[in-house]
Amino acid sequence: MQFQQLLYFVAVAETRHFTHAAERVHVSQPSLSQQIRTLEKELGADLFSRARGNIALTDAGEALLPLARRILADADTARHEVQELVQLRRGRVRLGATPSLCTGLLPDVLRAFHQLHPGVQLLIEESGSHDLVRELARGALDLALIVLPLPPASPALTTVELLREDLVVVSSAAAKAPGGPVRIADLRDEPLVMFRHGYDLRELTVGACRAEGFEPSFTVEGGEMDAVLGFVRAGLGVAVVPRMVADRAGRDLRTTALAPPGLRRTIALAHRSDVAPPRAARELQRVLLASRGAVL
Question: Do residues 288 and 109 lie in contact, with contact meaning Cβ atoms separated by under 8 Å?
Answer without folding.
Answer: yes
